[in-house]
From TrEMBL:
Keyword Transferase: no
Keyword Repeat part of the UniProt annotation: no
Name of this chain's protein: ATP-binding cassette domain-containing protein
Domain ABC transporter: 2-236
Pfam families the record matches: ABC_tran (PF00005)
Taxonomy, superkingdom: Bacteria
Keywords annotated in UniProt: ATP-binding, Nucleotide-binding
Stretches of the chain forming a coiled coil according to its record: none
Molecular function via GO: ATP binding
Length: 241
């Protein structure tokens, strides 16, 4: 179980302090899928980075299965069982795709296993195993490879920041199938940040964040009708290849 208590994150812009995440509290039950949505610039991605330890909270607690990880850095949070997929994945010149997948899994992966992981996110596997994680890969290819690295290892909690961004419809459909398989097993908590209706409809619960605060949170069947009425943009999908 994930417990987030009074989480706050601030930035200093030209000498002026501004709160990006404002006293947010919520829980995610074991096996639950929570989809976080809301207007752009509302603090969703920042919240995800604070949960992963990429950004350091100014106040509040993060408790994972009874363990207070609030003071842990990103490495220790990963060891504690959190996986994270960036909205804009980093590139690693000199690092091959198969090597990255093995590092993510924590052990050398047989070629057939690495190929299966890449195929699951819509990549023609053998063409990519020895490719470098550099500027020769498109944004969509990078996004799919990073999602594969998260899926390479079982986690207590997986966080995906707008997994639909920059991928084509066919790959998106395969990605949806992956999320469905993970969710059916009920052995990992999932937090997905998304504006895409198909992903939002998969949620057990939906949390709407606006201006750094929780505007609404509850079961999908309660929140979704209001969300679709107020935020018709959530039905859109970035179809960029």
């Amino acid at each position: 179980m994930l417990e987030v208590k009074n989480l706050t994150f601030k930035v200093n812009e030209n000498g002026v302090e501004r709160s990006i995440v404002k006293d947010i509290s919520f829980t995610v039950e074991n096996g639950e899928m929570l989809v976080i949505t809301g207007p752009n610039g509302g603090g969703k991605s920042t919240l995800a980075k604070v949960l992963m330890g990429i950004e350091k909270a100014d106040a509040g607690q993060i408790i994972l299965d009874g363990e207070d990880i609030s003071g842990y850095d990103i490495d220790h949070r990963a060891k504690a069982g959190i996986g994270f997929a960036f909205q804009q994945p980093p590139r690693f010149k000199g690092m091959t795709v198969d090597r990255l997948l093995s590092l993510a899994a924590g052990e050398p992966l047989p070629e057939q296993v690495a190929c299966r992981m890449l195929s699951s996110v819509g990549l023609c596997a053998k063409e990519y195993l020895k490719r470098e994680i550099d500027g020769t890969l498109s944004g969509g290819e990078m996004k799919r490879i990073e999602i594969a690295t998260v899926l390479a290892k079982s986690h207590k909690l997986c966080i995906f920041d707008e997994p639909e961004a920059g991928i084509d419809l066919w790959s998106f459909s395969m990605l949806i199938q992956q999320f469905e398989r993970i969710h059916e097993k009920k052995d990992q908590m999932l937090i997905l940040i998304s504006h895409q209706e198909r992903i939002i409809r998969m949620a057990d619960r939906i949390m709407v964040i606006d201006d750094g605060r929780i505007k609404n949170i509850g079961p999908r069947e309660e929140v979704l009708p209001t969300l679709l009425k107020e935020e018709p943009s959530c039905t859109c999908m970035d179809q960029q290849a």
